[in-house]
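PROTEIN DESIGN WORKSHEET
SECTION A - STRUCTURE
LENGTH: 66
TOKENS:
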């Protein structure tokens, strides 16, 4: 009975190592993709004026970022 327990343990360890390596690979790809971007690229710089209507605010929101 020792062999099946060992094989099951080795299989579980192998699965964890495989998924861990996959997650690390995805993280490295994302980091490389976003390497040249800064927080400023994600900020909205087109603000509303105090005199703008709710319609203007909705249009700005639906238009998306700059």
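SECTION B - SEQUENCE
RESIDUE ASSIGNMENT:
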């Amino acid at each position: 009975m020792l062999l099946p327990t060992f094989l099951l343990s080795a299989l579980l360890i192998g699965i964890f190592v495989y998924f861990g390596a996959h997650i690390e690979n995805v993280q490295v790809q994302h980091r490389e993709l976003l390497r040249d971007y800064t927080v400023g690229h994600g900020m909205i710089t087109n603000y509303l004026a105090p005199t703008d209507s709710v319609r203007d605010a909705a249009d700005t929101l639906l238009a998306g970022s700059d």
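SECTION C - NOTES
The mean pLDDT is 88.
Residues 8 and 14 are 10 Å apart (CA to CA).
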